[in-house]
Amino acid sequence: MRTRLLFVFVVAALVAASGVVTVPVGASVRAAVVAVSRSPRAAAIEPFRLIGVRAPRVADLELRTSTAGNWGGWEPLEAAAGPDLSSEEPDLSSEEPDLSSEEMTGRAMQVSEPVWVGRSDGWELRGPGRADAEVLVVRESGERIALPSSPRAVARASSAPSVRFRSEWGARTAKTNPSYASSVKMAFVHHTVNSNTYSRGDVPAMLRAIQAYHMDANGWDDMAYNALVDRFGEIWEGRGGGIDRTVIGAHTSGFNTGSTGVAVLGEFTNELPSAAASNGVATWLAWKLPLTGVDPQGTATMTSGGNERYPKDTSVKFPAIAGHREARPTACPGQAFYDRLGDLRTETTRRVGLAMAYPGFDGGVWVASAELDGDAAEEVISGADAGGGAHLRTFESNGTLRTDAFPFGSANRGGVRVAGGNLDALGVDEIVAAAGPGDAPEVRALRETGGVVASFMAYAPGFRGGVFVASGNVDGVPGDEIITGPGPGGGPHVRIWNGGGVEIGGFMAYSPAFGGGVRVAAGDVDGDGIDEIVVAPGSGGGPHVRVVRLDGSEVSGFMAYHPNFGGGVYVGTVSQGLGTPSLIVTGAGEGGGPHVRVMTSRGVERAGFMAGFPSTGVRVAGGRLRGQDPADVLMTGGPRSLSIIKLARSDGSALLL
Questions:
Q1: Is-contact 7 54, C-beta < 8 A?
Q2: pLDDT tens readout for residues 229-265
Q3: pTM score, whole prediction
Q4: Conformation bin of residue 476: beta by default, left when phi > 0, alpha when psi is -120 to 50
Q5: CATH at 273
Q6: Cα 651 to chain center, whole Å?
Q7: What CATH number should be reported for the domain holding residue 590?
């Protein structure tokens, strides 16, 4: 049960710890202050930096502040949001009044959003209901926090953006442990109704003041927002509990559960956030939303926990990136900012990755690269996984769509696995497509401009486990070969075919008894000028990666992940330049987290990072998309992942957008 206490009584015990002070204006203590109509200054109050109001109707009031007698302009106030009604989190921002006060009986009280005012020493209220108001101020703090020269990334080469963590701005410990939703379905965007002219050095103090106000004036457990972005574009961790987790905030009452809240420090009724701030929000959401499969251009249906606009259990459809005002009667995030949320959704989608291969499809994507148009840079090839209609697409190196194709016809439902290679040793590369599970084990070599170069059954026509495919020059004769590996149920039989579809070799990649399927790649991983075949097991086979020659002899082998991991391994190769051994890149299969590793042929790690997909596997390939070596790593997610194609430097130093 929530504790119902009048804030004016509670705050006395909190002043020493938080710096929050109440300045009553109401009739019950009228003798303590000068009448509002005489422009009272809170002269007895130490300088303050943040101010808010508790009143029956906050939206009826306007506030202005002064410094040494110099008054600023009048600012409208907005009522604070707060925790969901079903939450156990205390909320003083909408408490019932003190029933022992005759003049307050029957009037529900609200607490306004806090307003950062810099260093001020006076305030004035105007509007109906000011006689019953209490002004809440957060004292100026002399504490200064020395920030590191640059923000910390969540993990080296992780897809997470650089973030200033709570310890960096001096956050207080939350009152209780955080609560978590089953999933984040959407984001609400806020502004903090602050000055837009603060300095970099002000930001930590602003965050500490906002947190103090939320915890002490409103009574919440912690900062309301999950993340905040300043006008310089830096991203700050807000509410504790883990930025990569589904922490329930207190930013949008009725809809906190299942949403994440990001606030921009500033006030945007008539002024847009800075370009840096907008980019910071897009960068944050481009990482945060895909963690739980949210398309930034999509929608989310939420069930209201109850608020002023939507009664409890009302089903509401929101954009995946919505303004606070869409959930509650508030001006937040300011009219100017709200009008540009469409641009924010577009920019967020662009930053999600190189491309969204199949918008709205979450069944998984296969990815490869090939030189398709004769310029210096390779292009991207994608294939939709099962349920995507065997839809093959090609993209420019900047993510622009080039072509659409259905190499096995639109009736094929098992998806299409892809590779690229110069099969005829002439001109541009060809695309190699292989059918997925449920369809005949057909492989087709295609020109991007149209036309089938070769077509053959890689395994017995009745086999329906799907085919994994790669391409490389494994025999030293001009022209690349096609390498196939069977899907589950086909045994570990890897086969090699020339560009016309004639078999020239094959071997058992693992014990003949293994039926989990074999993923394949090709690259010159030993630097001898001829490509080797890299094989990795499907689900149930352990993480044993092998490097094998055309004749089946082993060059090397290693465990890509912990020996006990049985989720399978996806594999590709990354060119380091002519005469230099290529590197092997692996992606963990389902259950292993989106863990990408870049290694030598002996399993020595050169880079390792998390790709930012759900734990349903991460498919990998190498690509010279920038037209130079070393090549980069292309990544896509498995089933239940958005169809995002991501690109990372092969040394793991950064994700490239």
A1: yes
A2: 999 999 999 999 999 899 999 999 999 999 999 999 9
A3: 0.70
A4: left
A5: 3.40.80.10
A6: 22
A7: 2.120.10.30
